[in-house]
Amino acid sequence: MRFTYVTLFPNLISPYFEDSILKRAKNNKKIEIDFKNPRDFTKNKHNKVDDYQAGGGAGLLMYPQPLCDLLNDLKKKSPHVHIVFPTPSGKPFRQIDAKRLAKKEHIVFVSGRYEGIDERVIEEYAHEVFSIGDYVLTGGELASLVMSDAIARNVKGVLGNENSLDEESFEDGVLEAPSFTKPNIFKKSAIPSEFLKGNHAIICTLKKEMSGLKTKYFRPDLFLRNVKGK
Ligand code: 6GU
Description:
Blueprint: E1 2-6, H1 20-27, E2 32-36, E3 50-52, E4 60-62, H2 64-77, E5 82-92, H3 95-101, E6 106-110, H4 119-125, E7 128-131, H5 141-152, E8 185-186, E9 189-190, H6 194-197, H7 200-218, H8 220-227
Parallel strand pairs: 1-2, 1-6, 5-6, 5-7
Antiparallel strand pairs: 3-4, 8-9
Helix pairs in contact: 3-5, 7-8
The structure holds 6-chloroguanine.
6-chloroguanine (6GU) binds near residues 131, 132, 135, 136 and 137.
């Protein structure tokens, strides 16, 4: 899997791949990353990438030409890229999207800064437009990283133990059951006793019950979606 980040600020992104699982994945060539800077495609003296909004409105927007030249260049070199625009006005990014996108060869994340990107660029180039939640970030970089991380861990060979991909939150549309490790008693609080007895059928039933309760309590929206079978 190759991730290309189109960003004015590559330094916001690159350190995330310098530690832990994604560092190993990069070293093992399970994932490859590179960066393209729209500023390198400007044609004006001061390498300006932003401009005032048509019709007024607070803040500046990234205007089309540098981004379009950059993306045309990218598509010419890699015709099969899947281009993603992170924006708070996109559709919600979910676990099923992470799994689906993990099968792509090459994903490009186009991060806007300032108040965002001229809509015509998104119309022209986006294969998908995602939001990572109902809040506004200062730019698309963090959102791109969030999505890349969720995608990368579904790429074959990235996680040490592929079993960790089963049984996790959202796998069956429910939150993961609580889990415990040693010590058996921590600050007067004991691990549920069945967990220590080792009857896996009982533990499995218990976990399913806890999973359901947790989902109902913290995510009534997910719970109802399951009840309705959507
Ligand atoms: Cl994808 N981008 C930005 N800038 N803000 C966000 C977001 C994305 N998702 C939620 N907030």
